[in-house]
Amino acid sequence: MVDFTTNSPLTAWKNAAGIAGNIFALGLFVSPIPTFQRIIRNQSTEQFSASPYLYALLNCLITMWYGTPLVSIDNVMVMTVNSLGAVFQLVYIIIFIVYVEKAKKVRMFGLLLVISGLFALIVIVSLKIANREIRRISVGLLSCVSLVSMFASPLLIINLVIRTKSVEYMPFFLSLSTFLMSTSFLLYGILNFDVFVYIPNGLGTILGIVQLALYYYYRRRSTADGNEPLIMPHS
């Protein structure tokens, strides 16, 4: 392990990558706002699902815990970005609970309690691991698996774009934010010699490149053919 106290230029680049990652992540966190504006305006969740926000909350909580000094050293940027993400996801879930059908409110609240309980269990069990390195590896593996599994959604979107030959279902700025955030934390993880940060974000960077390439290809093709973009029907 390199001593960062004697490598100030390396530390500066690492911190710059972490700060950039936090900024780009904000673009991802605010992207659902139009959906929730619609929910509030219509006072109904319609056919929208809360599952992505519940899973994102759990992912943010686990990765935030990995970034704390109690688990890993010098990963404050990982902790801050996931703390911010957890706050956004929690707000979205609360809005969802307020406007969802009465029959589903109890189930939604129950799922939120399950996530809270599971996170508390992870914290308690990991703190009982006296060896700091084993604790870091254990929580790091959980964080890595959680982050990698989050890429199921981009893969589904990529498949949808190829099948429909339309980028209507893949907003450009969302894809760009994903690429920039993943690239920033890929660099952050490499400069911090943290495999649990750079592996999942390396995969995220690759997926981001694929999404942007598909956007460029199908956007040009659509323009050349003079086709109207597909519009997703509102439920």
TrEMBL record:
Lineage start: Eukaryota, Viridiplantae, Streptophyta, Embryophyta, Tracheophyta
Transmembrane annotation, as ranges: 12-33, 53-73, 79-99, 111-131, 137-162, 169-191, 197-218
Cellular component aspect of the GO annotation: endomembrane system; plasma membrane
MF terms in GO: sugar transmembrane transporter activity
Topology class, membrane: Multi-pass membrane protein
Family: Belongs to the SWEET sugar transporter family.
GO biological process entries: protein homooligomerization
Chain's role: Mediates both low-affinity uptake and efflux of sugar across the membrane.
Pfam families: MtN3_slv
Protein known as: Bidirectional sugar transporter SWEET
